[in-house]
Design goal:
Chain B: It is a peripheral membrane protein. Chain B: Pfam families: ABC_tran, oligo_HPY. Chain B: It comes from Natronosalvus hydrolyticus. Chain B: It catalyses: Ni(2+)(out) + ATP + H2O = Ni(2+)(in) + ADP + phosphate + H(+). The structure holds 2 protein chains of 2 kinds. Chain A has 12 helices and 12 strands. By secondary structure, chain A is α/β, with parallel strands linked by helices. Chain A has 2 domains: 4-232, P-loop containing nucleotide triphosphate hydrolases (Rossmann fold, 3-Layer(aba) Sandwich); 273-347, no CATH class. The longest helix of chain A has 25 residues, at 322-346. Chain A is globular, with a radius of gyration of 23 Å. The termini of chain A are far apart. The model of chain A has no long low-confidence stretch (mean pLDDT 90). Helices cover 30% and strands 24% of the residues of chain B. Chain B contains 12 helices and 13 strands. Chain B has helices spanning 46-53, 80-86, 99-102, 109-120, 125-138, 144-147, 157-169, 187-203, 215-221, 239-244, 249-256, 297-300; strands at 2-15, 18-31, 35-39, 61-70, 73-74, 92-95, 175-179, 207-211, 224-229, 232-238, 307-310, 313-315, 334-336. Chain B is globular, with a radius of gyration of 21 Å. Classes of the chains: A alpha/beta, B alpha/beta. The complex binds adenosine-5'-triphosphate (2 copies), iron/sulfur cluster (SF4) and magnesium ion (2 copies). The site of one adenosine-5'-triphosphate (ATP) has 17 residues of chain B, from strand 1, strand 2 and helix 1.
Chain lengths: 347, 342
């Protein structure tokens, strides 16, 4: 049994509720996530990637019970998370923590750092004041902050330091599982490197499991064991990290990988990136929701929604024509080797 | 040929706690039809440098030294009026991260395009409107005849940035300054905008200054790059050379901190400490407190290092001076002293 099992999860928001739209029948539902399923094993990291509005944060917010699901279940250690109550719920709230993108807004500006970190200890534990103080010192050390930072206010710290405070707060209750929602997206690369190193260290030391949400594929590739790619609320492909990057099976994954500028000049130019824009989530295209932007699309694609198919290994893909995508890449690869052989020959 | 020559340029902000020199004696030039990248981390002075070309600095900021020569004119010595009449939007235009900052929500995109075109080019309204439709088509707005009379709010973020680019290019400027033009956009839209800029640079013979903190963006479209640290331009190199043989310890560390340069789950390189407070920068090389290759007393004392030419890379670092770094075996080519020639 996996630590976290998400099964058929959907979350719909009513975006123009109220009495009048309901009476007029113009009430609209936004399907933020649709039929999302995945598992995370203890000690593993699953990356969740996709462009803005894909539904990544909503997945995190349903897991942490910020939202009730519209459909589907989230199971943690086998128990349905949205049916927990009493001490089980309390235990769940301690085991599962979340770190957000923007440390400037996720920390209370009125509280000194020490108080912010001690807050969950105060709510969830019976530790005495002295014990809490001791624990805060430990936590500061764990995230490589100085003891003196305890008495500083958020505005006195840099973005990277603040993100370490968020991580320290998340660690306060010895969690097992942390949802990291774009934890380094607001940081400079050199600061990002520190946070990523810290996250990897902590994972090893405390056997943490992560759900790592990011639109930065370089970061995802570095840190995650498995990756799930989301598009318009659905998971369109899921695979072990290496396989996903080397051999994407879904046209969207392929396009996404081609769109990311590589910090290495002279690499493949983004010629077969993604065309067009992401359609409105209020009105997703029929059939495969990627079909209006897809170069592999056929008539079938605009009518039938492809199911998320489990292929041989651990790969899942939702595309009628994934075999064409794979064949295309094989062709490209052989062309590459072919042309380089020819070049060598003529030299 | 150099289209723009920046020499010993300094920009200073007056603040309650004293003066802050955000750009310190920066020298570089931009060639015809070149895309020149300016990279560096938050607060190193990229936007200040970009804003100084057209003197679009904040109230408390001003050019405190040096020159910016474009087309025989020293922009640094011109008045606001002169810049507005002769340069802005016409010879040099600028685009920013947030397209909404450049567009007025109460006018249609057509009105804004036509206004810019008629102001700078000798064209009547009708011809300007036709030109505007052409431009919208150039930047990839579908059905431009139908969309030209729409207001900004009816376009997506990516489309707005395209429209801003259309306005910026409407007068065929020789130089476009783009300050983080794709930051915050989705990667697929970013890739489209970068392709567009590259294409337009070529077809309109425009040089581009691309300001970004994203080394991926730089690698994708720039011909040459300048790396800034704490207000100094510490390294300038052709793009391939910068990535293959970074010379400045800061550039080396910066490149080493990106995950793409490491195996999976491998520890990333970390630069110790923080960038300095620019009100009181360290003496000597501004990077010395964080540098892992300090090579002599000079690194920590006196003025900033001179700029050396090392096999085609301009680098501001004593490692390439045989008089300071005993281990250095190459030739010592000083191309600029920190004080300038005067
Ligand atoms: N509380 C809400 N009410 C209505 N719609 C919402 C709500 N939260 C999210 N949405 C919508 O659900 C969709 C998914 O949003 P979500 O924030 O999960 O995306 P995301 O993948 O995290 O995007 P980003 O990369 O921009 O953070 C979007 O269309 C969003 O506008
Ligand atoms: N109006 C101002 N008054 C005082 N200091 C300023 C002002 N504007 C910028 N600065 C300072 O000047 C330095 C350079 O800022 P600048 O905005 O040019 O950096 P940047 O490289 O563009 O950073 P970012 O990547 O965050 O956009 C910073 O230390 C900043 O705090
Ligand atoms: S000048 Fe000295 S301190 Fe500065 S980067 Fe070079 S070696 Fe390091
Ligand atoms: Mg999000
Ligand atoms: Mg800036």
């Amino acid at each position: 049994m996996a630590l976290l099992e998400v099964d058929g999860l959907s979350k719909h928001f009513v975006v123009n509720g109220g009495v009048v739209p309901r009476l007029l029948g113009t009430r609209k539902e936004l399907q933020a996530i649709r039929n999302v399923s995945f598992e995370i094993e203890a000690g593993q990291t699953l990356g969740l990637v996709g462009e803005s509005g894909a539904g990544k944060s909503t997945v995190g917010n349903v897991i942490t019970r910020i939202y009730e699901p519209t459909n589907g279940t989230v199971r943690y250690n086998g128990a349905n998370v949205h049916e927990l109550s009493g001490s089980d719920l309390q235990a769940y709230r301690q085991s599962v923590q979340m770190v957000f993108q923007d440390p400037y807004t996720s920390l209370d500006p009125r509280y000194k750092i020490g108080r912010t970190i001690a807050e969950p200890l105060k709510i969830h534990t019976d530790l005495s004041k002295a014990e809490r103080k001791e624990r805060v010192s430990e936590l500061l050390e764990t995230v490589n902050l100085e003891p003196e930072h305890r008495d500083r206010y958020p505005h006195e710290l840099s973005g990277g330091q603040l993100q370490r405070v968020s991580i320290a707060t998340a660690l306060a209750l010895d969690p097992e599982f942390i949802i990291l929602d774009e934890p380094v997206s607001a940081l400079d690369v050199s600061v990002q490197a520190r946070i990523l190193n810290l996250l990897m260290e902590l994972q090893e030391e405390y056997e943490l499991s992560y759900l790592f949400i990011s639109h930065n594929l370089g970061v995802i590739k570095h840190l995650c064991d498995h990756v799930a790619v989301m598009y318009l609320g659905e998971i369109v492909e899921q695979a072990p990290t290496g396989e996903l990057f080397e051999n994407p099976h879904h046209p969207y994954t392929e396009g996404l990988l081609n769109s990311v500028p590589q910090p290495q000049p002279g690499g493949s130019k983004s010629t077969d990136g993604l065309t067009g824009e992401i359609p409105s989530a209020l009105n997703p295209p029929a059939g495969c929701s990627f079909h209006p932007r897809c170069s592999y699309a056929t008539d079938q694609c605009s009518v039938d929604a492809p199911p998320l198919e489990t292929l041989d290994s651990e790969r899942k893909v939702a595309c009628h024509h994934w075999d064409a995508v794979v064949a295309d890449q094989a062709d490209e690869r052989s062309e590459l080797t072919h042309s380089s052989v020819q070049n060598d020959g003529t030299k | 040929m150099a289209r723009l020559s920046v020499t010993d340029l300094s920009v200073t902000y007056r603040t309650g706690d004293g003066d802050l020199t955000a750009v310190d004696r920066v020298t570089f030039d931009i060639q015809d039809n070149e895309i020149f990248g300016i990279v560096g981390e938050s607060g190193c002075g990229k936007s200040t440098l970009g804003d100084s070309f057209l003197q679009l600095l904040d109230e408390n900021g001003s050019i405190s030294g040096g020159s910016i020569v474009y087309d025989g004119m020293d922009l640094a010595a011109m008045t606001d009026r002169e810049l507005a009449d002769e340069v802005r939007g016409n010879k040099i235009s600028m685009i920013f991260q947030d397209p909404n900052a450049s567009l007025d929500p109460v006018y249609t995109v057509g009105q804004q395009l036509v206004e810019t075109i008629t102001k700078h080019l000798d064209m009547n309204k009708k011809a300007a409107r036709e030109r505007a439709i052409e431009l919208l088509d150039d930047v990839g707005i579908p059905d431009p005849e139908d969309r030209i009379d729409n207001y900004p709010h009816s376009f997506s973020g990516g489309q707005l940035q395209r429209i801003v680019i259309a306005i910026a290019l409407s007068c065929e400027p020789g130089l476009l300054i783009a300050d983080e033009p794709t930051t915050g956009l989705d990667v697929s839209i970013q890739a489209q905008i970068l392709d567009l800029l590259e294409e337009l640079a070529e077809s309109h013979e425009t040089s581009i200054v691309m300001i970004t903190h994203d080394l991926g963006v730089v690698a994708e479209i720039c011909d040459r790059v300048g790396v800034m640290y704490a207000g100094n331009m510490v390294e300038i190199a052709p793009i391939q050379q910068l990535f293959d043989a970074p010379r400045h310890p800061y550039t080396q560390a910066l490149l080493d901190s990106i995950p793409e340069r490491h195996g999976m789950k491998e520890d990333l390189t970390v630069i110790p400490g923080h960038p300095p407070d620019l009100r009181q920068p360290p003496t000597g090389c501004r990077y010395n407190p964080r540098c892992d290759q300090v090579c002599g007393m000079e690194c920590e004392t006196g003025d900033v290092p001179p700029t050396y030419d090392v096999e085609g890379t301009d680098v501001m670092c004593y490692l390439y001076d045989e008089g300071v770094n005993e281990a250095y075996e190459g030739p010592t080519n000083i191309v600029a002293e920190p004080g300038g020639d005067d």
